[in-house]
Specification:
Number of strands: 3
Strand content: 15-25%
Strand order of the largest sheet: 1-2-3
Helix content: 25-40%
Shape: globular
Largest sheet: 3 strands, parallel
Length: about 80
Amino acid sequence: MRAAGIRAPLVVDAAGWGRNVEQLLAAAPRLVQQDPQTDVLFSWHAWDTEALELAAKGEIPLIIGEFSGTGGLQRGNPLPTLAG
């Protein structure tokens, strides 16, 4: 895509309808290194919060591509704070 002149950020969605975050986080560092612009974001569909913590530890740019109406992110169960 970069060879074709695309300069926008690239977004890679997790496999398995956005839910296979383990595979996504494992592949992310290599994908970022392979991009000459290092401008890659990774998208995951929020079914739990552990992925956010793992991404923060690995310094992987992770966005939430979809929120679940059921599962870990319900009203009263907010996202964890990743700062600090």
